[in-house]
Every structure is written in C-alpha cells, then in structure tokens.
Amino acid sequence: xxxxxxYNNAFIENFEITEDQLPGLKYQDVEAWDSVGHMGxxxxxxxxxxxxxxxxxxIDFGSYExxxxxxxxxxxxxxxx
Amino acid sequence: MNRIWDLGKFAxxxxxxxxxxxxxxxxxxxTESRRLAEAAGHRCxxxxxxxxxxxxxxxxxxxxxxxxxxxMVSSHLEENLLENLxxxxxxxxxxxxxxxxxxxPGMAVVYEACGYALLKTGYEKQYPLYEELGLLVTTSGSTGxxxxxxxxxxxxxxxxxxxxxxLKLDDTERPITTLPMNYVYGISIINSHFLTGATLLxxxxxxxxxxxxxxxxxxxxxxxxxxxxxYEMLFKLRFFRMNLPSLRTMTQxxxxxxxxxxxxxxxxxxxxxxxxxxxxGAAEATSRMGYLPPEKALEKKGSMGIPIPGGKFTLxxxxxxxxxxxxxxxxxxxxxxxxxxxxxxxxxxxxxGDERNGRLETGDMAQFDDDGYYYIVGRKKRFLKIxxxxxxxxxxxxxxxxxFGIETASAGTDDHLYIFVTEEKIxxxxxxxxxxxxxxxxxxxxxxxxxxxxxxxxxxxxYRELAGYxx
Lengths: 81, 471
Known about the structure:
The complex is a heterodimer of chains A (about 80) and B (about 475). Chain A has about 80 residues and is mostly helical. Helix content of chain A is about 50%, strand content about 0%. Chain A is built from four helices and no strands. Chain B has helices at about 25-40, 55-65, 80-90, 155-165, 185-195, 210-220, 230-235, 260-270, 395-405, 425-440, 465, and strands spanning about 15-20, 25, 45-50, 70-75, 95, 110-115, 115-120, 135-140, 150, 200, 225, 250, 275-280, 290, 305, 310-315, 330-335, 340-345, 360-370, 375-380, 385, 390, 410-415, 415-420, 445-450. In chain B, the strands form six sheets. An eight-stranded mixed sheet of chain B has the order 6-7-5-3-4-8-9-18, sandwiched between helices. In chain B, strands 11-12-13-14-15 form a five-stranded mixed sheet. Chain B is globular, with a radius of gyration of 22 Å. The interface between A and B is medium-sized, with 21 and 22 residues.
C-alpha cells in the first residue's frame, strides 16, 4: 500500500466517508470528525506510519491537507505525495 | 427578585469572555438579563438551544434568575428529537442562535441580544408551572424520550453553594468550557462560579483544536471539567508535557474514570501543585453528590469520594437494610437539598411538586472503605455512559424495534455499545440509525449479528449471555 493509500484509509475508516470527500476536508466538516474521531484518526496514522506525534502537531492537524504537511516534517518524514 | 445569583454585586468584573474577545461584565449581565426577562414578560416555559457563547449563557442566566423556566437542549439536537420535545412541552418561547432562527418559520422574533433571538412559538396551550420549578434538563444523552429532570430553585442554589465550598471557589477563578452547557456538569460550573464572581471562558472548540489551547493560555484558564473520555484524550495528547502555569484545578465527572488514569492525573497534579478532583453526580441530584478531596486523590485511587457538603450517602442491601460493614456492595442512596423534584414526561407534569423529598436512589451499586470513602462498583439499571452521555439501553432497543420491527438487544461497557441483531442485511442500517439518533461518535457503536437473541422461558432477554460477545 502506498503512503497515500494508508493516509486516505485512516480518514475513510475512522470517519466512514468516501475518498471523494477527502480533498479540502476539515475538522468538524463531517459529524464523525469531532474530538473523539480526531483521536481515532491520530491513533490510526501513528500506527500506519509507526510514528508518535507531538501535541502541537495533533492539535494543529485541522484538515486533510494540513495533515500531509505535518507528516512531511523531518520529525516524521512521511511523504504522502 | 433574583432567584439564584446577585450578579450586580460583582459590578464591573468580567463575567463572560469569549474566544473571539467579546466579553460581558457582571453589571452588564444583570442589566441584559432584566431586559431579556422583561421581553419575555412573565413566568413561562422557554427552550434554550445551547452553545458555549455569551448569548446562550445570557439566556440561561436571565431566565433562571427571573423566574422563567428554561429547557436546556443542544443547538445540535437532532431535528425530530427537538420537534418531539417541543410538541410535548409547548414552550412559549425559544431562545435560539440567530443563525438558527430560520429553522422555525412562522415564529416571530420578539427580542434579540448577543447573537441570540427570542422566538415566540405561538403554541396556544400553556402548561401551568409548579411554583418552585426552576430548570428542566435532559438526562445527559437524549435518545428521543421527552423525559426531563425537574430542578427547583432551591436545588440550584444549594448545589451551587456546596460546589463553591468544596472546590474553594473565589473571584479569581477562570474556568474554561470543555462541556456543552445543556449538560448538567456544564450548568453546574456556571452556577457555582456565578456565586463567587469568577470569569467564565467560553468556547465551542474542543481539546483537539489548536484554538482551544491558544484561548486557554491567552485567557489564563484556571480550571476545566472533563468526563472520563476527556481524560483519555488529554493523556493521548501528552497533556503532562504541556506547560499550563495558569491551571489550578481539573475536575472529573460524568462516569467512572479508570483507576489507571485516575492515578496518572493525580500524580501529575501532585507533582505540579495542581488539584485533580474526581466527582460523582447525576442530573437527578441537580449535578453533584460526591467528591474526592484533591489531597486524597492519590491515596484513594478509584474512589469517587465522600458526600458533598450538606449531603449524605447510605448503602442499601438487597434485604432493604442499610449496610454498615465496609467493602459490602449495596445501592447508593443520596440525601440532600439538591435532590430534584422528579421527572416530567409531558407538559402536564410541569405542575407536579416534590416527588422525592430529598432522597434519591441512584441506581449505582457502591461500597465504602474503612475510612468512609465510596467506590462505584456497578449499575442496577441498564444504561451506559458514552463519552459522558447517559445512554439508556432499553430505549436503544425500543427505538430499533420501532424503526425496523426486528428482534434486537443492546449491551456493552462505557464508551462501547454493542447492538445485537439476527439479520446481516439490517446491521449497517441499524448502526447508522442509532448514530443519527444519538449524534454520538460512530466509534462507540458496533452491531453484531448472532443466530438468535438469547431469552429465557418467559421471553425475557438474557443480557448477561450477550456479554460473552464483547467482554
């Protein structure tokens, strides 16, 4: 599985949405992306990429696109593409 | 006549501060409250569609302090559930965010303030209100039943004063909202802090949002409240590494926190000179019944503490007698002036007086230790707490049966609800239906397909046998 597929799957599975909903998706755009859903998303991403995210990055992770930027940071080194 | 708070005595002190910088002094809150109450005109029933904003708190304060009885519901309440509640109680007004006023065509806006509008519903019927009735709240989670808890002015005053006493609140406190204000825990924070002239920091942002923490730091929050799931999230956020010098007190209620998390937060509090206060309560007791004094937080891990000032606990055994031996399980009974009047199921019930006489059978099974500290060990009734919201399992079963006409049974543990059905093809629709009704995060719900729902010879569901599927 590519990094992009893993990244997308974390959103699709946690929020029970489809791939076409992902571009531009922001926190609270769908009901399932609330604080509970956010925690689930972060846990899935940490597991998928074997990383541990910092507090500031977890709370800054406000959109589908922002998440890609955060994961590309040197601390995680995950290029989503 | 002020029913609960003497807001004017705190004069120019800031009562409310929003994340966007908007604020309101106690003096202004007093004046604005009077204006709003005058616009409503007389003692009557009003719905408040709650958000954590100045307009929402203004409505609550104005109504309760001036003898108008609010029904507190979330501004996100599912449309059908709101319609059911409105039909059952026929309020004279709805105090709604201006951006939601359009959802009520045909209702005239008679007053506006702070982003909220007072809508005259036009219902002809007005149910008479018992003279001491002050506030109506849902029992945490709402799964469609129009059942409300009837709270009196005495209940509100007594519980707020007791909380302010045991938390040692003063006018330097700046609690930040982490809970919706239609939730009794959220209401109790407002009630107790307005007694002492504190400043409420209002935001609808959550712990998982950067804006929440920016506001927390810039406004110098001194306390917050959380349900068990809040503390799980904070732990996941590596909260212990955050630098929060203004924070003094963390309170916990809305269900039993795991002993492991209790210990971690108590240790953090001890190391950083903060307080971690585990509490116990229910909407039927206005809000709070017990608390664990923060200096005992580590020593009494897993305990919800002792009765609040003015309250009393007893344990009743299966034989109906009071338990006097430590470490013996019985049903927890609470007595105090914050025990509410009773329930309402429809408008006609609003005239009912006090049905409980200061005594509440909590439905929780508990024990006390040698020092008189109480521990919740189980529940007598079939409900779960999902992210701090009470979800009645019998009601879930009824909703599904009514919608799908199938055999079903629900069970589970806090934050994990399992719905059992016997047909594969119905599993996903059932799950979606319940998520839509409860408006709780889907992560809490699982549907399991089993060959048949276990029942005894009398046709009663054997819930205990279901535990094998999830325990």
